Amino acid sequence: MPSFDEVLKEAGEFGRFQKRVFFLLSQTGITFSSLFASVVFLGRAPENFWCRIPGAAELSERCGWTLEEERNFTVLPLHLGNKSSNGECERLDVAWDTSISCASPLAHYGNHSTGNLPLATCHDNWVYEQPHSSVVSEYNLVCGHAWMLDLSQAILNLGFLTGAFILGYAADRYGRMPTYLLSCLGVGICGIIVAFAPNFTVFLIFRFLQGVFGKGTWMTCYVIVTEIVGSDQRIVGIVIQIFFTLGIIILPGIAYLIPTWQGIQLAISLPNFLFLLYYWVVPESPRWLLTRNKGEKALKIMRNIAKHNGKFLSPHYSEITISNEEVSNPSFIDLVRTPQMRRCTLILMYAWFTSALIYQGLVMRLGIVGGNLYLDFFISGAVELPAAFLIIVTIDRVGRRLPFAISNIVAGIACLITAFLPEDIPWLKTTVATLGRLSITIAFEVVYLVNSELYPTTLRNFGVSLCSSLCDLGGIIAPFLLFRLAAIWLELPLIIFTILAVVCGLLVLLLPETKGISLPETVEDVEQLSSRFGKHGKKRKHQDTSSYI
């Protein structure tokens, strides 16, 4: 019986069929990155708002004031009396009598007593010039409630973390495509509910669920793409992340054209319903079918792939084999039971955590130069594009481990240099910090590929999802780590980033090289990776110098 990789080579390792599936599934990267970064535009701070004095609404309506006139009557006296107050988080502790003069509502307090008027903290009576422009103005997430916007992003990351466990397990047990389609449906439905949430509690609940399903779409589509191509074409795992960056670049354009946060939320959520059409054009992963003892279905799909690729699969193939390993439901114990699997799992978990923590930390610290939110965000996405292209031109020439290690070490060194550069040359600090971000972006993208290549088919989706869940944990911790340490010393977070990145760069050198090697089908295959590289490395290198570093 032929192996799966032998049949795949005969059917075409990256023919017309795989290119079509790759292009279709890559669109998921655009919608996922838009969800990931949407808080920047959904939670824009309102430009003009103030706290309304009791009775002001009735008086404003009777007097026919514009919002600007009401603001002047409300905030100007407060500012005159207290130069440090702008009327956003506190108000004069008075009540306007609706029967008094429209021209001077505070006249009865005396012309010179404004500074002595009592003040009160504003709780829920804010007025916004654009009340539906962002989540902040919709749910009053200002002043003492501002931390709740950060909570909404933490809840989204918690959803990503939960989705990694639940849907990663589901994809390995019930199939890649059923999990992918269910996740797309979930993202779309939850996204609509988020857009029309009647209160902030409902908003948080369904934003969490949107995170759960969003993680399912991204991780599952990534695994499908890497499983249907040959070992020499697994670079698609890097290329697909270009679409993630495209989503980052497109998002500010969407936000610029759509003035309300509900419109932006719908624009990034509704496209997920279109992905349900993939049910008729994207098949189940044949590798996964083989692990579930569904060889006939797998062979049928392989014949279809060969037909679309203009190839001919031998009619003598009646069965495909990948292993004699007993199929079982995946668990964390399977990822750490054997020495090589344990080493890979622990190092990859640390690499995911470090990449996410440093990446988000540098983004928050760098704060792209300029005051235009849309342009700044566009530039921040464009900075990431060179990372994918650098990986594409090097990874199949020098392998995975070396770029993985070097990118982490360079990111760490860049952070260290940035920490000690003088403040009077900001352009140099910005340049070096940008180099650090570019380097950690490369590490971030390589870890996706290496993670999928180091786990057997029976555990691949679960393993990638579990390890990448540390990415979400890093995303939750990053802002707290950055701001708390910066309060002690502004550059202290960069020192921590340096240590984490350099240690990661050294650890990944302990991983097996996967360049040119077929995807492992069993745990035994993973355990033999190190022996192949070690005992038989020279022999393989003599036979095919392009297989290893």
Automatic annotation (TrEMBL):
Q: What is this protein called?
A: Solute carrier family 22 member 3
What is the protein's membrane topology class? Multi-pass membrane protein
What SUPFAM superfamilies does the record tag this protein with?
MFS general substrate transporter (SSF103473)
Give GO BP annotations, semicolon-separated: dopamine transport; histamine transport; monoatomic ion transport; norepinephrine transport; serotonin transport
Q: Where is the Major facilitator superfamily (MFS) profile domain?
A: 99-516
Q: Name one GO cellular component term.
A: basolateral plasma membrane
Family stated for the protein in its record: Belongs to the major facilitator (TC 2.A.1) superfamily. Organic cation transporter (TC 2.A.1.19) family.
Keywords tagged on the record? Cell membrane, Glycoprotein, Ion transport, Membrane, Mitochondrion, Nucleus, Transmembrane, Transmembrane helix, Transport
This protein's record includes keyword Phosphoprotein: no
InterPro entries noted in UniProt: MFS_dom, MFS_sugar_transport-like, MFS_trans_sf, Orgcat_transp/SVOP, Sugar_transporter_CS
Cross-referenced Pfam families = Sugar_tr
**What CDD domains does the entry give?**
MFS_SLC22A1_2_3
What reaction gets catalysed by this protein?
agmatine(out) = agmatine(in); guanidine(out) = guanidine(in); L-histidyl-L-proline diketopiperazine(in) = L-histidyl-L-proline diketopiperazine(out); (R)-noradrenaline(out) = (R)-noradrenaline(in)
Alphabetically, the GO molecular function entries are:
monoamine transmembrane transporter activity; neurotransmitter transmembrane transporter activity; quaternary ammonium group transmembrane transporter activity
> Which PANTHER family would you find in this protein's record?
SOLUTE CARRIER FAMILY 22 MEMBER (PTHR24064)
Localization terms from the record = Apical cell membrane; Basolateral cell membrane; Mitochondrion membrane; Nucleus outer membrane
The record lists the membrane-crossing segments as 21-42, 154-172, 179-198, 204-225, 237-258, 264-282, 347-368, 374-395, 402-421, 427-450, 462-482, 488-511
